[in-house]
Amino acid sequence: MNLKDHIRSIPDFPKPGISFYDISTLLAHPDAWHHCVAQLAEAVAPHKPDLLVGIESRGFLTAAPLALQLGCGFIMVRKKGKLPGETVGFDYDLEYGTDTIEIQADAVRHGQRLVVLDDLLATGGTASAAIKLLSQVGGDVRAAAFIIELSFLKGRDKLDVPISTLIDYDD
């Protein structure tokens, strides 16, 4: 099955000149979604994760069902102020300004094996920040996996872990 057939490209969203790769059409197709999760499981399982880490918000859709399939836990990386309880944050640079991501302070135990997931790897800024945050709290980040990679943006160059992607757009 070609997963690209189930990804919708929306031109000029969220602003002119940007093509948005929408996984909503993939999620709506049960056979394609099942195939996608199975491919991700094949890529992630060799890393023997204790926890899968979903990056807000479409990374939650990827990591949660995969965690169930692999029999491991799931935690969330969210924007500042979105998680209850005590949190640990990490500030990172954007093209114009900065942003902060957080995890719950008790989400990761020292030495736990982690794999980071999101729907799309573009510039790599948020994924890199998530990996640094997780390492900072003692996690052993083994890999990152994405459904889509926009390889022309060279986001994988910012990540210092093995990367798995299922679909590549190179322009």
As a percent range, the share of helical residues equals 25-40%
Q: Which architecture would the CATH scheme give at its second level?
A: 3-Layer(aba) Sandwich
CATH class: Alpha Beta
Give the domain tally: 1
- Kindly report how far apart the N and C termini lie: 22 Å
Summary, kept brief:
With 171 residues, the chain is of the alpha/beta class. It is built from four helices and nine strands; from the N terminus they run ββααβαββββαββ. The protein has one domain: Rossmann fold, CATH 3.40.50.2020.
Identify the notable features of this structure and list them briefly.
seven-stranded mixed β-sheet, 171 residues, 26% helix, alpha/beta, 37% strand, globular, Rossmann fold, two-stranded antiparallel ribbon, 4 helices, single chain
Structure, described:
- The structure is a single chain.
- With 171 residues, the chain is α/β, with parallel strands linked by helices.
- The chain has a single domain (44-169), classed as Rossmann fold, CATH 3.40.50.2020.
- Helices cover 26% and strands 37% of the residues.
- The chain has helices at 24-27, 30-44, 58-70, 125-136; strands spanning 8-11, 19-22, 51-55, 73-79, 87-94, 97-104, 113-121, 140-150, 163-169.
- It has a seven-stranded mixed sheet, sandwiched between helices.
- Strand 7, helix 4 and strand 8 form a beta-alpha-beta unit.
- It starts with 7 loop residues before the first strand and ends with a strand.
- The mean pLDDT is 96.
